[in-house]
Automatic annotation (TrEMBL):
Database matches in Gene3D superfamilies: Histidine kinase-like ATPase, C-terminal domain (3.30.565.10)
Keyword Ribosomal protein recorded: no
Catalytic activity: ATP + protein L-histidine = ADP + protein N-phospho-L-histidine
EC number: 2.7.13.3
Keyword terms, alphabetized: Kinase, Phosphoprotein, Transferase
Annotated InterPro entries: HATPase_C_sf, HATPase_dom, His_kinase_dom, Sig_transdc_His_kin-like_C
Histidine kinase domain location: 165-376
Species of provenance: Phragmitibacter flavus
Keyword Kinase: yes
Protein name: histidine kinase
Root EC class: transferase
Amino acid sequence: MLHVFLTNQRAELIERCRAKVAKRASPEATADEMDHGVPFFLDQLIKTLKVEQTDKPMESRKVSGASGGGKPALSELSEVAAQHGRELLRRGFTVEQVVHDYGDLCQSITDLAFEVDEPVEVDEFRTLNRCLDNAIAMAVTEFNYQRDFVMADKHIQTLNVQIGFFTHELRNLLNTATLALFAIKDGNLSLSGATGSVLNRSLVGMGSLIDRSLTDVRLIAGLPVRNALFALSDFIGEIKLSAALEAKVKECVLTVSAVDLRLALDADRDLLLSAVGNLLQNAFKFTHRGTEVILNAYSVGDRILIDVEDHGDGLPPGEAETMFEPFTQGGKDKSGMGLGLSIARRGVEANDGILSVRNKPDEQGCVFTIDLPRHAMPLN
């Protein structure tokens, strides 16, 4: 009888499964993966086969569940399989490993039975398949349920952090603007004075923060890119108008090169405006006071390049690989949310472009470059 064979060969079957696990996973993972699946399943399978040899064979369904697919019914085996799925997820395994565990046992049973010439009745083999089917279904179901729960929890935590950063930054800017406005009103001060500059700086900061956040929401939501053909010179001119105000607030010089009137972009203008705007904000943030921030747009072959160059301290070794990650802030100035460069890269990539950064040779500062497909304005 199969249950006698399984009982006598229990240790050998577990060892064979352990060897199979070791071949596809690290040796350290073998014990963790094995201790929460195969031994317990074997015990439930043996118990099921024993019950089916009694005068009440249908009682075995309480142990291992019924056949026929669909939603797995509660049973002793399903509870063990669900525990196995939970444990493997908690220990960092994949759903493939959950399925492989039970497949390993099935193969080990059939191989060993063949080697020792152990006959397996048709009904016994059907019971084995039913138990495997139910165990895999419940383990995978529980694994996916727990994984979805964990992912949702991580998403909520990330969202809470993001909202927290946004509200904290917005509150600080609003508070500064409010205090500056009260000071101007109470002291009958001029808007062109130092206090007026504080108010202006706070309002510009709030506008930039809101624009950045709206772009981020649009990218995360996966809204379709709204492509349109537009002149590169008009695009750079629009950016120059808004950036000039921020350059004045930051007490630095903005230099914008002349742009070939024939060059054009076929892209989502709003996403690119946000991307270049974020790069300029980053440049104004880190360039030394009184130095120059340069915006240069030109063509090389079939590409259009937009450079944003600052005169700051440059990039420390290795920072170029991490600075585009969300909530990453380099340099001494830790103001802001650390999202601008991440949003800029996603906006550029959504338009089939590439965003890169490099240190300037023999100079302080760095250059961010947006690389986009080149187009031309139609002839009149």
